[in-house]
Write a structure and sequence with these properties.
binds protoporphyrin IX containing FE; 4-stranded mixed β-sheet; alpha+beta; 3-stranded antiparallel β-sheet; 11 strands; globular
Length: 404
């Protein structure tokens, strides 16, 4: 296994020699049984076709349609908060971002389903975590194995499948572009006029569920945890929000006037790039800079280690959103080279939802931070939990204090 921790070598693998790498087989085994051949785990010509079909659904113009849902869901969350309450912020963020992604996918009234989706998805996430990086041997256990863990996996997957296929049938019956991601994916045609099958739509929806909600939820949770420990940054963010929004609900149009909120999110993703490990396998012998990587060997790229490299980032352990401002990093003559900062990966397989995630994170952050400060009780702290994503050991318990 080779860990690359140098931007030019990473560029070499993710861009220049991308046709000689794939995602590692064991990773595909674990996830494919639940998420099928969706964008995240498909390869080659099939992946290329799917990416082309799906790309327009994430276009800037489409994202506008989802912005209102993002702030509405954040407001709904705030309606359940009261001044001085102790909350598990990770859970709150997770429920909110799941609702956002369910709205964006189906654009229909799915309140009951959202709860069921949340439960099944988290159950599945839990099992995949056990089968993932933490315990690679479990990855070899087939889904049909008569084990309690696998029984739970089948049950959770089955519950999600039933809901997703029902939505697909309803969308097929309507056969119009109702503005949501599913109808866009359903109506997209390739050069030969072919559309996605039900199975493929299912796989893409499941992929968006899993790739598109916990990542943003954890980013927001880390942002609040970092803000709670950095009063000067928090004050600067509040000053920007108060000056620009003056109590108004933020919209997509406001984002251009909230540069500091963007810097806070980018800096959060530098210190805690939720997808901390990008895994690949060489499908041919590779020469990467001075290193030879034989066919079949794994290549690991970690945004986490790259983002904390002192050669590219001044005081890399410090939460300092200003490094993403016009002045940039003080230690650098120019901005960090590409691939020194890559929370969304890079090359052709860069996260398709990156603009969606950045918009959502900023809108939800702005909506909440406008009204509340989130603080840790004396003596309480959070602990990093390294699994498939960068999470928290025991949730993220924080006290919410009204700013008004
Ligand atoms: C802060 C939030 C997010 C982070 C940090 C993140 C990170 C990443 C990374 C690093 C990759 C590349 C993985 C690799 O190369 O192996 C990726 C791929 C992907 N992400 Fe995200 N993501 C986020 C949010 C989202 C959202 C909101 C969606 C959808 C709504 C999404 C959908 C996807 C999909 C479908 C892929 C696979 C793309 C492909 O291979 O063509 N992600 N993400």
């Amino acid at each position: 296994m080779y860990l690359l921790n140098q931007p030019d070598l990473i560029h070499e693998v993710l861009v220049t020699q991308v046709d000689k790498i794939e995602k590692p087989e064991p990773l595909k085994w674990i996830f494919r049984s639940s998420f099928g051949n969706g964008l995240f785990f498909s390869e080659g010509e099939f992946w290329r076709r799917q990416r082309k079909l799906a790309q327009p659904a994430f276009h800037h113009k489409r994202l506008q349609l989802y912005a209102e849902g993002m702030t509405r869901r954040a407001h709904q969350l705030l309606a359940t908060w009261s001044d001085g309450q102790l909350r598990d912020i990770r859970k709150d963020m997770s429920a909110t971002t799941l609702k956002v992604v369910v709205d964006a996918l189906f654009q229909s009234s799915v309140e009951d389903d959202t709860d069921r989706i949340y439960q099944a998805l988290h159950e599945l996430g839990d099992i995949l975590e056990q089968q993932g990086i933490a315990n690679p041997l479990l990855a070899l256990v087939p889904d049909w194995a008569p084990l309690p863990l696998m029984r739970r996996k089948r049950r959770a997957s089955g519950a999600l499948d039933a809901i997703v296929y029902r939505f697909i049938q309803e969308h097929r019956a309507a056969n119009t572009d109702s503005g949501d991601l599913l109808s866009m994916l359903m109506l997209a045609e390739d050069e030969d006029g072919q559309r996605m099958s039900d199975r493929q739509l299912h796989d893409e929806v499941m992929t968006i569920f899993i790739a598109g909600h916990e990542t943003t939820a954890l980013t927001l949770t880390w942002a609040f945890a970092l803000l709670a420990q950095s009063p000067a940054v928090e004050q600067k963010l509040h000053a920007e929000l108060d000056a620009v929004l003056n109590g108004r609900v933020p919209t997509m149009a406001d984002l251009a006037s909230l540069p500091y909120a963007e810097m806070v999110i980018k800096e959060t993703l530098r210190l805690y790039p939720i997808s901390w490990l990008i895994l690949r396998q060489a499908t041919a012998d590779l020469q990467v800079g001075p290193y030879r990587v034989p066919k079949g060997h794994q290549i690991w790229i970690s945004p986490y280690t790259m983002h904390r490299h002192p050669h590219y980032f001044d005081t890399p352990e410090v939460f300092q959103p200003e490094r993403f401002g016009p002045e940039g990093d003080r230690d650098l003559e120019s901005r960090p080279p590409k691939f020194a900062y890559m929370p969304f990966g890079g090359g052709p397989r860069i996260c398709i939802g990156n603009a969606f995630a950045l918009m959502e994170a900023r809108l939800v952050l702005a909506t909440i931070a406008q009204r509340y400060r989130l603080v840790f009780d004396p003596g309480s702290k959070i602990q990093l939990r390294v699994g498939n994503l960068l999470g928290f050991q025991n949730g993220a318990s924080m006290r919410v204090l009204s700013r008004s």
